[in-house]
Amino acid sequence: PVANATISPGPLSRQVRAGDPVTLRCSVQVGSVPVTFTWLHSGTEMARGPLLELGDVGVGHSGSYQCVATNQLGQDGHRVFRALSPKLALEVTPQGHWNRAVATGVGGSLLFLVLLVAVVVGCHRWHQL
């Protein structure tokens, strides 16, 4: 029977930014072939196979992921064995909201400083005439 299903890369909690590519791999330490892998997202079946490629993730990909490994005993497959991996909690943070705010603030400050220097230089030249 299958046993010790795991998801890699670990750890059991991951934080990624929106737009980052995420690929999860499910494997078992014990189990005779063929082994079937089923992926659950927040308890709902979403895919099959040892690899789960989420691509460029969005906030909707947040939640818990779990892999179910299954194999059968006997040629008629009358005994089914299952191994559930520990849940992996994936948190996707929106990309760039904070970065855009900082960039806008820095850009605005730089523009203000350039204008201030231009006014000071202009006033200095005006008084010299």
UniProtKB/TrEMBL annotation:
<dbReference type="InterPro" id="IPR036179">
    <property type="entry name" value="Ig-like_dom_sf"/>
</dbReference>
<keyword id="KW-0472">Membrane</keyword>
<keyword id="KW-1133">Transmembrane helix</keyword>
<dbReference type="InterPro" id="IPR003599">
    <property type="entry name" value="Ig_sub"/>
</dbReference>
<dbReference type="InterPro" id="IPR003598">
    <property type="entry name" value="Ig_sub2"/>
</dbReference>
<feature type="transmembrane region" description="Helical">
    <location>
        <begin position="101"/>
        <end position="123"/>
    </location>
</feature>
<dbReference type="InterPro" id="IPR013783">
    <property type="entry name" value="Ig-like_fold"/>
</dbReference>
<protein>
    <submittedName>
        <fullName>CXAR protein</fullName>
    </submittedName>
</protein>
<keyword id="KW-0812">Transmembrane</keyword>
<feature type="domain" description="Ig-like">
    <location>
        <begin position="1"/>
        <end position="85"/>
    </location>
</feature>
<dbReference type="InterPro" id="IPR007110">
    <property type="entry name" value="Ig-like_dom"/>
</dbReference>
<dbReference type="Pfam" id="PF13927">
    <property type="entry name" value="Ig_3"/>
</dbReference>
